Amino acid sequence: MNQQTNQSEPLRVLESQGLASVTLTAHWSDEQASHEERLHVEKFSIWREADMLPSAIGRNLAGLQQGDRLEAPIQPGDYTENWHSTRQIVTKPASFDRHHRPGLVVTPRLGRFYPQGFFKGVAGLYREAVEPARIIELNADRMKLDLNHPLARTRVKLQLGIDRVLPGRDRRTGRCDNPLDELLKFPGLATPLQSGEDIDFGDDAKGMTRMDDRADQVFYTTPRLIQHLDSMARRQLNTLYRRLIPPQAEALDLMASFDSHLEGADLGKLHLLGMNQQELSKNRLAESRITQDLNRNPNLPFDSDSLDTILCTAAIEYLTKPAEVLAETLRVLRPGGILVVSFSNRWFPTKAIGIWSELHEVERLGMVTQWLRQSGYNNLNTFSARGWPRPADDIYAGQTPHSDPVYAAWGYKED
User: Fold this and answer.
1) Can you give the pTM of this predicted structure?
2) Looking at the domain 216-412, which fold is it?
């Protein structure tokens, strides 16, 4: 996602004490999916931060220009503590403090991550501890915790890309943030259980209830011709979609609005299915427009094996029966077709399923990926991007420093 520069100006060369805007990308795979995590660092100092990266990257930054890339493998234990069985602890379910957070009752669930402070009376754990502990076994009499870093056994391929070389130099000393720690801090929260069991995200009937359970037609009667993601997040989505959509695809934008974020995509035909006809009518790329409440009627009005691509953007959290809808998407896709589900951290809280607000952002990505697997999708992938500066024209400019994060999961119908 390089920012545009004046093409008449020569590209700056990064000096040994120079500054740059960079993007760190981590690639890895687990038993469920392949993952790509991107973190943008707006002001990266070679002098202060390069030593925190693998030497194959850190020692070769000087002399690079905008657009250059370096890669290096990260072996298990290189940048996290080595995985060790002694960091798996057996305790009683009663040690889980359901009232750890005042005014909130939290239920322990198999596969979920909780701050270590939730587990009272466990040797070595303190109430103030916020590092994650995962419940890997749970029954009436026994609870087993894993305190290892979620990626402690994972081989990661790291890439650093130079987005821009900045003017100035930095020779300050003192404490600084480790960008690699920030990159790898959260992605492991989407990993499946080693046992192969499904994670209990709380996505049962109770978890699918909503604060506002009125008919969705009432909520969507008034058109909302506004963007729900900032301009940087929309560019990230557009780039991802153009990368994934096959040429001349017949595509469906599911739970659509006036913008499908598909400018420049090589489409054969675009269908829309959404809740408000006025919003859909403003979508200039579409060839057909259908209004339908999927929470009342999950059956898609398309023939089996008739579409190449289905997109669901910033909307999956509003489905009260996602399994039924995802089963329908699999039916109407052609063999080899792709479903892409994307979201951010903005939503209408009264209309979203209750469990959505209870999960960490990356755990939501894990839940959606598990839904895709349970629905029969293959070759699963995830993508996340965060850390870019919030655009100056966004309504939250000045309140939060970073652009809306982008999370996506996709899978393919078996050929």
Assistant:
1) 0.94
2) Rossmann fold (3.40.50)
